Amino acid sequence: MLVPPAEDEAAGRHLTVDRQTLRRILLTGVEVHHGAPFERYELPGGDRVRAHFANGESAEADLLVGGDGTHSRVRAQLLPHARVLETGQTEIYGKTPLTGEVRAIAPTAALDGFCSIMGPDGRFVSLAAHEFASGEGNDYLMWVVVAPAERFPHGLNAMDGAALAETAAAAVDDWHPSISALVRLTDPATVNPTSILTAEPLAPWETVPVTLMGDAAHTMIPQGTSAAFALKDAALLCRRITERTGPLLDAVRAYEAEMLDSGFAEVARVLETARANGTTG
């Protein structure tokens, strides 16, 4: 997706990307098998790895890359000592169709890009409109309601989308009425809850034909950079492998060193920002 050059590059440019669209783009030309979750891997020797899946199948390769997120099964086996910590914050998020009614009550900043509305008590709401440049998608307003976990009732994971949306809206009912209204106008099918987590820094480990990227390695508080760092990791790993002049594991080792440095520097940065804003403990 190309962004037209701006007259004043110093002013920056804004572009929102629908994740499902980006996912389809990234998977173009890639053979993907669904419906068989990863269970475990083994190292049969010869710098090879064999992955085993829930349907009983297995696959052998030169390298297994765990890009399976915060609750990575690959990381659990590779680095059982790695810890992902609760920050004390919970979020509920969803998408509200970008109708005329929504445009009329949404903050102007939310229609022009990503914005956050901060409260003094650990609550905040993030909003960002997404309009498909192609005209082939359903425009929406992404919203996230974040609050200290104790402000939400227990059992969020058992609630349906409508109940979650009402819970999120009720959490900010004492704010400007347009904020809770935007949440209540959501598509219930898009609403989900999650805890906000952060990873403890990791020291380099002995390199084997298994590695990690993105939140599987360096889970960070969501501030708009987590997905970008996963893409950065992927590009770095690709570069180290394709430009290598020696063994594959040497390239993987170099990747891991750079990935850990940059990834956990960002983990620390976003955590410090959140603490400064009073949005985490």
From TrEMBL:
<dbReference type="InterPro" id="IPR002938">
    <property type="entry name" value="FAD-bd"/>
</dbReference>
<keyword id="KW-0285">Flavoprotein</keyword>
<dbReference type="InterPro" id="IPR036188">
    <property type="entry name" value="FAD/NAD-bd_sf"/>
</dbReference>
<dbReference type="Pfam" id="PF01494">
    <property type="entry name" value="FAD_binding_3"/>
</dbReference>
<keyword id="KW-0274">FAD</keyword>
<keyword id="KW-0503">Monooxygenase</keyword>
<protein>
    <submittedName>
        <fullName>FAD-dependent monooxygenase</fullName>
    </submittedName>
</protein>
<dbReference type="GO" id="GO:0004497">
    <property type="term" value="F:monooxygenase activity"/>
</dbReference>
<keyword id="KW-0560">Oxidoreductase</keyword>
<feature type="domain" description="FAD-binding">
    <location>
        <begin position="50"/>
        <end position="241"/>
    </location>
</feature>
